[in-house]
Design goal:
mainly beta, 1 helix
């Protein structure tokens, strides 16, 4: 065999291996609908870009969702477009709705926007980096972080009240707790508690990368997970209560039930990407459910039912014991957090650019 044949054989071998590896990541693993007659797609709405952010629901039933196409969409409950607003950059974060009905959201070009419920521009605030976090609103103050590691507090007119700088990007969603304390994390694995005037109360350093957000329970306990699989609980003073290793990369936002059960998700990378939905109480694993594809942050519905999407395109529902009630194939890469309507309709976005409205029966 001459050198030319060897080189061609080597080249085609590399190409074939590359196709196999890429295919294992990009092609959804086989799955099936389970009890899928219990749910039905009411309608879909196609945007012009990926949808990563969770939809937000207005009091009148309007669904608000941002897209990679740089537009914020307002969709009527029947799936018809109400209006869209074109911003200056891709929208990664969810919209937050103020008491006045205005929408607040950030974009990857570093601007934070206020838009009226009828879609008209109100103001924008320039930051120095892209914005991934969904804002928290408390007592007419708007809190959000950006990728330069700064947490901002703005008033309702878009004026800066204060800012707090950290050493790493802030992609987490801030949470406002008791007495106006603001909790958030950055990707370096640090969790912060700030007074409502922006002064540091405490900082906890986990020592590992942190890709998700913090959750705060009714008793003030702060929960979060890191990429080394460690899941933490801190008290209100920032002292460690307990940790448990649940494996994989813990991301998303922990969800806490009224009874104090904490639901967290993990990603397990590899040739067959998968993950787990975990139920934790007082540092002990109650149960875990293995997903087919990376799971999204769960939403907690009526009777404790958990809803979440997966990387391979399913919308799933688990009961309080971690048993799969049903899963329904929507499209590829259902990545946004499900939003639950009062009429038992679930709204969720996907990387195929669609917003889905799924009715539960």
């Amino acid at each position: 065999m001459n050198s030319k044949k060897i080189s061609w054989w080597f080249l085609w071998s590399v190409i074939l291996v590359g196709i196999i590896v890429i295919g294992r990541f990009l092609i959804p693993s086989p799955g099936k609908n389970v009890n899928s007659t219990s749910s039905i797609v009411r309608w879909t709405y196609k945007t012009e870009g990926h949808i990563l952010a969770s939809p937000a629901l207005g009091n009148d039933g309007t669904i608000y969702v941002g897209s990679y196409d740089g537009k914020m969409y307002a969709i009527n409950p029947d799936g018809k477009l109400k209006w869209n607003f074109t911003s200056g950059g891709q929208i990664f974060s969810g919209a937050s709705i103020g008491e006045n009905g205005n929408l607040y959201f950030g974009t990857n070009n570093g601007y934070f926007y206020a838009v009226g419920k009828d879609g008209h521009f109100i103001w924008k605030f320039k930051t120095d980096d892209s914005i991934n976090s969904t804002a928290a609103i408390s007592n007419s103050v708007i809190y959000f972080g950006n990728n330069s590691g700064t947490l901002y507090a703005l008033d309702q007119n878009g004026k800066l009240i204060w800012e707090y700088k950290t050493n790493a990007p802030i992609r987490s969603n801030p949470v406002v707790g008791e007495n106006g304390t603001v909790y958030f994390s950055n990707v370096a694995g640090n969790v912060y508690a700030l007074e409502k005037d922006g002064k540091l109360i405490w900082e906890y350093k986990s020592g590992s990368m942190l890709d998700g957000s913090v959750g705060v329970g009714n008793d003030g306990t702060i929960y979060f997970g890191t990429e080394n699989g460690e899941f933490y609980a801190l008290d209100k003073s920032g002292k460690l209560l307990w940790t448990i290793n649940i494996g994989g990369n813990v991301n998303g936002t922990p969800i806490i039930s009224q009874e104090g059960t904490v639901y967290a998700i993990t990603d397990q990378s590899g040739f067959n990407p998968t993950g787990y939905v975990c139920a934790i109480s007082n540092g002990h694993m109650n149960w875990f459910y293995k997903t087919d594809g990376f799971p999204t942050t769960v939403s907690l519905g009526k009777n404790g039912i958990l809803y979440f999407g997966t990387q391979n395109g399913y919308l799933c529902a688990l009961d309080t014991s971690g048993t799969l009630l049903w899963q329904y194939k929507l499209g590829s890469f259902v990545n946004s957090v499900p939003a639950l309507g009062n009429d038992d309709t679930i709204y969720i976005g996907s990387l195929n650019d669609y917003l889905y409205a799924v009715k539960i029966y």
